[in-house]
Every structure is written in C-alpha cells, then in structure tokens.
Amino acid sequence: MTARLLNFSRIALLFSGIFLSAFAAKAQVAYDKVIEIDGIVMTADSLRSVPGAIIQVKNQNRGVQSTFAGVFSIICYKGDTLQFSCIGYRPKEYIVPGTLPDEHYSLIQLMVQDTFYLPETIIRPLPTREEFNYAFQNWRIPNDYYEKARRNTNAYVLRALAYTLPRDGNEAQHRTQEQMAREAVYYGQQQPMNIFNPIAWGQFFEAWKRGDFRRKDNPYSSEY
C-alpha cells in the first residue's frame, strides 16, 4: 500500500512539473512577443506633425491618440496590425514585423491628405422687400458674447447693482472700519454738521445747476 502511494505521488509530481514547464514556456513566448512602439505621425508632403491621429490595434478595442506634436506610444504584440486614421487624411495600416529582436521599436508613419468635396450650397436673398422688412423688424437674433459682455459692464448697470445688491463680508467689514475711523477722529467732541458749512452749500447749488438731481426715467440706459 505504501509503495502504491509513493508511485502515485511521483506520477502526480511528474505531471505537475510538466504542466508548470509548459505554462512557463507559453508565458515566456507570450512575453517575448510584447513590444512597445514609439513613433510620430507626420504628413507625407511637408513632414509636419499630425495631432489627434488615432492609432488602434486592428480587431482589438485598444488604441492611443497622438499628441499635439504627433508623438504616440503603444504596446502590442509582434505581428499585430496598427491602423492609423485622422480626419482629412487617408487611413494607413502598418504590420509590426514578427522578427524584431528588441522589445522597443521606433516608427515614423507618413499620412497622405485626403481631398473630398462638399455638396454645392446656394445662398439666395429673401424673395421680396416686404418679407425682408418683416424679418428685420420681428426676428429676434440672440446676442453674441461681445454684446453680452458690453451690457454686463455698462456703467449705469454696475452703478445700480452697487446700490441695490447687499454687501458681502469684506465690504461690510470695510464699511464698519471706515465708520469707526471717522468716529475716532471726533472722539470726545461734537461732530460738525454740513448744514452750517458754506462749502457744502456751494457744492449743492453747483450740482443743482448741473441737473444732478433730475429724475431719470431709465437709470440703466447709457448715452455712450
């Protein structure tokens, strides 16, 4: 009985060793086929870089995109086919040689521009003058970013917002500190009243003559 167990153990160890050796050999072969390709995508006529080119391994959901300088780096197996594609250029394929000795390979892929034609577009004016007048008076064209920025930075609008919007923490603290500073100047004495100040009365009359106190129908309008 003991001899049978020893023979069975020896046979099991033998098969295990054969299996592990085959698995290690297969893994070594697969590791030897892995290669890293570093390259650049350029135009064929002027040798300029092609940014945004897609480099994909054929029949696999793996790929990379070239940088602004056209540089890319991808890992694949020896014998795989790389597909190069970019808008405005003809697609290209490159078969990685299976006999490369090293694990790194440099590649320069040239792309040829693809000429294509768009269908003809005819721009016609409005049929009649009446329809043009109606469109000019009733169509509402949205404002562009420049017009929106101009309206948001209008002097009267900013002034109205400054008077109506509540103050934040920093503004409230600054206002409180200014009030405390004014009170500290006249600490222990009566503060002067501008009603008896002739200079203040003169400024008031000058502002009255200029029309600063006239009522404005649209405070948000601007004359410039």
Taking the alpha carbons of the first and last residues, their distance comes to 111 Å
CATH 4th-level superfamily of the largest domain: Carboxypeptidase-like, regulatory domain
Overall 3D form:
elongated
State the total count of DSSP E strands: 7
The domain tally reads: 2
Mean pLDDT: 79
Structural class: alpha+beta
Q: If helices are DSSP runs of H or I spanning 4 or more residues, what is the number of helices?
A: 6
What would you say the CATH architecture of the largest domain is? Answer: Sandwich
The low-confidence runs, each spanning 5 or more residues with pLDDT under 50, are: 22-31
Largest sheet: 4 strands, antiparallel
Write a short abstract of this structure.
With 224 residues, this protein is α+β, with helices and mostly antiparallel strands. The chain has helices at residues 2-33, 129-138, 145-152, 155-164, 169-185, 198-210, and strands at 34-43, 54-57, 63-65, 71-77, 81-85, 92-95, 104-111. Strand 2 and strand 3 form a beta hairpin.
Structure report:
The protein is α+β, with helices and mostly antiparallel strands. 40% of the residues lie in helices and 18% in strands. It has 2 domains: 110 residues, Immunoglobulin-like; 82 residues, no CATH class. The chain is built from 6 helices and 7 strands. A hairpin with a 5-residue loop joins strand 2 and strand 3. The protein is elongated.
